[in-house]
Specification:
single chain, 571 residues, Methylamine Dehydrogenase, Chain H, four-stranded antiparallel sheet, 0% helix, 55% strand
């Protein structure tokens, strides 16, 4: 502790058994709290870890004495004190947020996040709410007084790096490794907008005392100033008002449907390239949707906990039953049943004739990531953040197989056209090939240096193609069970991938604002289009090489792809 008037050291507080990395002073200036976690030291051109003691210590500034040692975290990374000075809140990479009573020096509450690792948090000015971000991009809002979770969002596609709250406590601003900032309304518990301009990870955010401006710093070596007040102004633009998150072309190839975080779906005419209708009804972002095999109905899921069945001729229907946000939607091959997964850890099978729940499937220990239909069987495969996959028999309403092997959340799943094998991608950086017939793992394929973002299988069933946050596209030979090749060219995270109907070309999108086309035979890039912002969704029209693309600003584009010439996308 230093005397700022004399510039002299006043006292040294000794007690931690590891590096001290965070310090916070109580509002009355009486106490200081410190944390200790691992640090790294460069010795002889090699990084060596110095273990922290993973404790929080409370010191009396007047006496220069340690008052208490607070234990409970596996790895504490941050500490804050509520404005009234009564409580301290600590976050940890073990996935917990702990609330400590600073009068009795004890833990009074522990909040368990959905992710294994909390990366950022902030407390509202009244001390009632805490907003936390996690390694998997989740943002959660909790009531510190009751320990009740108020809201959860999966909007950022990469880890949340920073969270700040406006002085009036009405809005939160989050920054992420996905290069974006998002503004959240803490009264309505909804996303207001996404701020896009940085070309690299957002590292720090500050808000002016008036709450009018946010200033963000980034690994792109820039600072940007954002006017938060202008977010209230209504703007009209072609397409969606927020990022497009999915595009699907109807089976007859005449229409495309797009969904967005603005809570709407739009139907587009592929011949005229014009919007036909906007489907409004969800009170939260659309998280997933499917089109029935006959192309007549759309089933969408949302963070508002509901599904909606959209039928332009017969009218719409709302399906209610989930207790948390819907994360994934699928449709059976006969079009009779919709299947939904949710943050509530359940899977529900819905009868589309009467809108009733046929069966609720329970068994996963964390939220559902994806649901896939197994061809030619009345079975589905679900993946979860509990690191497992489950195969469910829809006739009997039970899980028949649980596939265990990943050490991270399972983020994407693809099934071979013959329905005999599953390929899964996980946050542990690996792909696994599973045999449905033998009910076992066939192979584990490594190669990505970071988590895969999505995986698809070529229509001929020979290869699996995965995109990753490590900027590469991997081609997996499913017969030989090896990584055939890596496609390199993206300069930022590869987020989307698809394969043309002839199994010849791969199309990928990235945070580097590009859409690239690759030749599977030669493993070379044959075409590239660069946009103003990242492309966030696309689908390919079979046999006609038309690509419908959505971007992070909500715009929808129609490209005609002519191969093999370079730079040959046309509107």
């Amino acid at each position: 502790m230093w005397d700022l008037e004399t510039g002299k050291e006043k006292t040294t507080l000794v007690g931690h058994e590891g590096p001290v990395d965070k310090i916070v002073i109580t509002p009355n200036g009486k106490y200081v709290l410190s944390t200790s976690s691992s640090a790294f030291e460069n010795l002889e051109n090699s990084l060596h870890e110095i273990p922290g003691d993973n404790t929080i210590k409370v010191w009396d500034l007047e006496k220069g004495e340690e008052m208490a040692t607070l234990r409970g975290h596996e790895k504490v990374f941050s500490i804050a004190v509520t404005p009234n000075g009564k409580y301290a809140v600590s976050g940890s990479h073990d996935g917990t947020l702990k609330v400590w009573d600073l009068e009795k020096w004890r833990e009074i509450r522990s909040l368990r996040a959905h992710s294994k690792s909390i990366t950022a948090f902030a407390i509202t000015s009244d001390g009632k709410l805490v907003v936390l971000g996690s390694l998997d991009g989740n943002l959660e809002v909790w009531n510190l007084e009751t320990g009740e979770e108020k809201a959860a969002f999966k909007e950022h596609s990469e880890p949340i790096t920073e969270i700040v709250i406006t002085p009036d406590g009405k809005r939160a601003v989050s920054g992420s490794s996905d290069n974006t900032l998002k503004v959240w309304d803490l009264e309505k518990m909804e996303e207001l907008t996404t701020l896009i301009s940085h070309s690299n990870s957002v590292s720090k955010i500050a808000i002016t005392p008036s709450g009018k401006y946010a200033i963000s710093g980034s690994s792109d070596n820039t600072l940007k100033v954002w006017d938060l007040k202008k977010l209230d102004e209504e703007t009209i633009s072609t397409g969606h008002s927020k990022s497009v998150n999915k595009i699907v072309i109807t089976p007859d190839g005449k229409l495309a449907v797009s969904s967005s975080y603005d809570g709407t779906l739009k139907v587009w005419d592929l011949k005229t390239k014009e919007e036909k209708v906007t489907l409004k009804g969800h009170s939260g972002p659309v998280t997933d949707f499917v089109i029935t095999p006959d192309g007549k109905r759309i089933i969408s899921g949302s963070s508002d906990k509901t599904l909606r069945v959209w039928d332009l001729k017969k009218g719409n229907m709302t399906l209610k039953g989930h207790k948390r946000e819907v994360t994934s939607v699928a449709i059976t091959s006969d079009g009779k049943y919709a299947i939904s997964g949710s943050f509530d850890r359940t899977i529900k099978v819905w009868d589309l004739e009467n809108g009733k729940i046929k069966v609720t499937l329970e068994g996963h220990k964390n939220y559902i990531s994806t649901i896939s239909i197994i061809p030619n069987k009345n079975c589905i495969v679900s993946s979860s953040h509990d690191e497992t996959l489950k195969v469910w028999d829809l006739d009997r309403g039970i899980d028949t197989i649980t596939l265990i092997g990943h050490s991270g959340s399972v983020s994407s799943v693809a099934i071979t056209p013959d329905g005999k094998s599953i390929v899964s991608a996980s946050g542990d950086g690996t792909h696994k090939i599973w045999s449905l017939e033998n009910r076992e793992e066939i192979a584990t394929l490594e190669g990505h240096k970071s988590a895969p973002s999505t995986i698809v299988i070529t229509p001929d069933g020979k290869y699996a193609v995965s995109a990753s946050y490590d900027r590469t596209i991997k081609i997996l030979d499913l017969k030989k069970q090896i990584v055939k090749t890596s496609l390199r060219g993206h300069t930022d995270s590869a987020t989307l991938v698809a394969v043309t109907s002839n199994s010849r070309y791969v199309v990928s999108a990235s945070r580097d604002n590009t859409l690239r086309v690759w030749d599977l035979e030669s493993s070379s890039e044959v075409s590239c289009f660069t946009g103003d912002v990242p492309f966030t969704a696309f689908d390919i029209l079979k046999d006609e090489n038309i690509i419908v693309v959505g971007d992070s600003l909500g715009k929808v584009y129609f490209f005609h792809l002519h191969i093999p010439c370079k730079n040959n996308f046309y509107f």
